[in-house]
Amino acid sequence: MRKTVIGLTFLALSGCASDIMESYVGKDITAVAVKYGAPHASFQMPDGRQAFQWRTSNTYVTPMNTTVTAYGNTAYAQTTGGQAFYSNCVYTLYGKPNKQNSFTIVGFEKPTLDCE
User: Fold this and answer.
1) Tag placement on the chain: N or C end, fewer CB within 10 Å?
2) Exposed, middle or buried by CB within 10 Å (0-12, 13-18, 19+), for 20?
């Protein structure tokens, strides 16, 4: 059940990171760096584009819930939740050199579903 809820949440949020990345297409790479800091990595692609990558690591912990059931002088406690979920995401934007000695964003790599 919990995995289903998490999966549906990811589906509901899908497109968020892609929409943000797409909004930078046509802009200078410095606009991204001003908002998110310097990229973690940058490297030349064989087709002449430059790839810029940002990395994030996130931890999500589900809430804990304890149910106590009493029968006369005896009580039983059951705790659920408290599970940790980890995600490591890499976001890649592609740029081409421009006249300002910088790079214009020309595309991006669609993030994996758990990074949207």
Assistant:
1) N
2) middle
Average pLDDT over residues 97-107: 96
For the chain, what is the mean pLDDT?
A: 87
**Which has the closest alpha carbon to 17: 90, 96, 105, 95?**
90
Q: Which two tokens stand for residue 86?
A: 């980890």
Report yes or no: 30 and 42 within 8 Å, Cβ to Cβ.
no
DSSP state of 40: S
**Number of residues written out for the chain:** 116
Q: Which residues contact 36 (CB under 8 A, 6 or more apart)?
A: 54
Nearest to 92 by CA among 55, 58, 46: 55
DSSP line for 44-92:
E-TTS-EEEEEEEEEEEEPPPEEEEEEETTEEEEEEE---EEEEEEEEE
Can you tell me the mean pLDDT for 89-96? 96
Query: What's the domain range around 8?
Result: 2-115
Burial class (CB in 10 A: 0-12, 13-18, 19+), 108: buried
